[in-house]
Amino acid sequence: MLAFILTLGACQTSAPHHQGQDLAGTTSPSSSATHVPGGVLIVVAAVTAPDQPGSVDLYRLDGSRAAHYSLEAGSGVFAAAGSRIFFGRGDQLNALHPDGTVESLGPLGAGDIRWFASNPTGTSWLWSTHQEGDTTTKSAVHLGAPGIQGRVVEELTAAGQTLAPLMWTNRGAFIEAAPVGGHGGYFPFGRSIGWLLVEGSVHRLDPTSGRVTPVPGSPRCAFGDEASDNSVICFPGGSSVRLYAQSGKVIDVALAKPRFTIAAEAFCAPAEAICTVAGASGVGNGMAYPNGTPPPEQYGTDLIRPDGSISRFGPDGTDPAMGPQSWLPDGQLVLWRRPDAAGGAPGVYVLDRSGRGPFIPTKGEPVGYLG
Description:
Elements lengths: L16 E4 L20 E5 L8 E6 L5 E7 L4 E6 L2 E6 L2 E5 L5 E6 L4 E7 L6 E8 L4 E8 L6 E8 L2 E9 L2 E8 L21 E5 L6 E3 L7 E5 L5 E4 L4 E5 L5 E5 L7 E3 L10 E6 L18 E6 L5 E4 L5 E2 L12 E5 L9 E5 L7 E3 L3 E6 L1
Antiparallel strand pairs: 1-4, 2-3, 2-29, 3-4, 5-6, 6-7, 7-8, 9-10, 10-11, 11-12, 13-14, 14-15, 15-16, 17-18, 18-19, 19-20, 21-22, 22-23, 23-24, 25-26, 26-27, 27-28
């Protein structure tokens, strides 16, 4: 993703407006609970300007909408996990629950807020802050949980680098020492919420002890994810992907061109050694059309296993919808077609391993899942 700064407004927190699936209007702000069916719910946030009201939709896995919540201007949605949709307003972190109630989770602290990652259950979370000096940047990773004051678990003072929580999966929390200035050039996998383009070294952080462990291949090979068999998938550059097995064996896999002219988004299933690899053809690069409009970008997704075997998956024009949470607990995979992508209408696909499943038409951005 293009280097992503979480923009937090200076408004006071209040409960979002709720609209059930069958309601025509929006109720007045209230913190009273509204019943929402249980089970796994996919969270989709509207992409709006910071000074405009936003909204969040919850969808069941059959594609039906379970709830709609309006968010006041200045609210920024960060992530979703467990029973919490994390969002910030002013310098405060809050969580919206599936029934519409809002939980205050405390202040985010001083300094520019960069990047946020929750653990899979939504019961602990990491975020980073940074302050730029004349020659160096001071950054810190903070750990938060319900009922406790956030504390710093890692710090870095360096020229041109800032700490950034990439993801927190059941394999651990992964932190990048990211370039302060972010990414230059064309990167078609940018998002408004969530994923960060990996350009620096990545390590695993134990948030409890503060212990840091190197990740195989980093920073020479841009980190993607760690699979359930402890193998690491990463991108060495060009149209290829690399697999580091726990045994030390390294496998390089060439990816098809032009489908994978630009490769990214390697995310691994939580309980099976299989990962996504997403590609883009690069045709949507606006820098190649200084006097015109580029055609829609062409996306695609493949699945790769530790032995290097690879196969196409899903409809044309789609890529993983929600980072590591694109893999649901039951093994289904959630893909999305971006509003500016080729291949058909924008929206979210909830697919079984045969590539079949419901389509949710939406121009919103998938955030994660609850449940």
